Amino acid sequence: MTRTIKTDQKLMIYLDDWRARIDKTLEAYLPDTVAMPTRLHEAMRYSLFAGGKRIRPILAIAAFEAVNRETGEKIETALPVVAAIELIHTYSLVHDDLPAMDDDDYRRGRPTSHKRFGEAAAILAGDALLTAAFAMLSDRRLTAAIPAERLLSVIHELGRAAGSLGMVGGQFVDIESEGAVGSQTVSEETLRYVHAHKTGAMIRAAVRVGALLGGAVPEALSSLTIYGERLGLAFQVVDDILDLEGTESETGKRVGKDAAQQKLTYPIVMGLEASKQSAHRLMTESLEALTVFGPEADPLRAIARFIVERKS
Amino acid sequence: MTRTIKTDQKLMIYLDDWRARIDKTLEAYLPDTVAMPTRLHEAMRYSLFAGGKRIRPILAIAAFEAVNRETGEKIETALPVVAAIELIHTYSLVHDDLPAMDDDDYRRGRPTSHKRFGEAAAILAGDALLTAAFAMLSDRRLTAAIPAERLLSVIHELGRAAGSLGMVGGQFVDIESEGAVGSQTVSEETLRYVHAHKTGAMIRAAVRVGALLGGAVPEALSSLTIYGERLGLAFQVVDDILDLEGTESETGKRVGKDAAQQKLTYPIVMGLEASKQSAHRLMTESLEALTVFGPEADPLRAIARFIVERKS
Predict the structure, then answer these.
(1) Measured between CB atoms, which of B124, B130, B165 is closest to A172?
(2) Tell me, what's the ipTM?
(3) Computed from CA positions of residues B218, B219, B222, B227, in that sequence, does the dihedral angle turn out positive or negative?
(4) A21-309 adopts what CATH topology?
(5) Confidence of residue B2 (pLDDT cuts 50, 70, 90)
(6) Where are the domains positioned within chain A?
(7) Which residues of chain A have pLDDT under 70?
């Protein structure tokens, strides 16, 4: 542990500051709860403003900053674009919690969308959040300062990462494999697929979106892609460990649920110690990918450590 | 009835020809069923290639043609963009059929997605189809010939029309109002909202997308917007009438289901005769919006008549 309390505090301020700016951007964009259909907008906002850490948009901001000194692009122009990533992330949580999927009653200490608004409303709120992401990304009133071709490459990056070859594909295989945990060889292969796609794809994409928006040169984009890929895998391994070890008050959801459902998780398939080692190895690899950068990548480094060492 | 058999045949050839080209474009874009997760791609293709008429993409093509003589844009460049509209339409059908929504077992004479693949797979297939639409729209390998700013305006148009202020909003209010048919005043107002949003918004957007891609001048865009708006309303009124009058073999789904579910439909709220008059009035209004165009808008005229006079 080479970190000091000061470094921790600096990261907390960084995270809080950007979280507030991202929330403000989302708040201004999303129709308010007097817009018809009021209850649909209420449901969308209920899940979007549920105290999320906004890790994905902040990763994009930090990646933007890492290439920023070279390119001199203004970070404010990127804000509506990175905020839209959170709309995609929130939709995925709302749909994952549905009775036909993971069937979760609580998230972040509150009833899930379908428990609060009913199943049809939760499906539609998720659909509307996903759609709103792409409407926001292509809204030139918000993104006028970004070159059109660059914005199209960002939209394509997110469309690919969120789709059947990315996040949705990972969730599909995860559901498919439920209760089928047993055959060790098949499980490890499937486990890697699920983690790389379900969580990894969007974290990798968030980092790449920041780099693309900042006008990264190909070498910088490659390095940041590796950083995002390893970090994305680490993120899910830590999530699995927390599900097994964490307390309910820390994670805000029922603990041990994955084990009870025979879900494909790292601790179940590889054991707890091997999982912890794996998380740290992935973090180390993600940090190594940043060696080409100087202090401009310090936020990315601090976030990687934060993700792997978090307790909830 | 001023139409001749020759006109009918010409329209059928036009619809069949474009349907085949749209299907080919979608076929080439969507991952095939050997791409992992294979069963997810199978589910996506099952619903996408279920014999749909591709009316929305063809409306976009016809709107493109209506402004094409002025602008000289090549129609082939528009094909991947208009095909993506069908991905959005298909996702909406898959989610509408879900048990928590309209709970339909059959569509186009085949089991619905959730009956065939299970509920989780149907939710995810819908999510992936919606996401694929935006990935396709922003894929520059397919759309290189379209100016980037124009493509962004198309993506934004579809994102708005498909979201909480458009199609999803209409579906939400439709579900909310189920079983609540009774108070005549409230019902008529709600009915108009549902129809304008659930079906109308995407038909209007399809026409506008074609016009935008064709580089329509503001006046032409306004006229085509009115055409699309009235036609979208007419489309749903006819759908409601067919649900009440059509035979199962013609519509491919259980007839009279709307009435049994106390769904908000034109015939239930306004009566059958008034509904038929309304459909024809809307068709007339849509045709009147085209008076500024010459024969280049003949396909749009023929499609409007086809939609209102169809039997399934």
Answers:
(1) B124
(2) 0.94
(3) negative
(4) Farnesyl Diphosphate Synthase (1.10.600)
(5) very low
(6) 21-309
(7) 1-5, 69-73, 179-186, 247-262
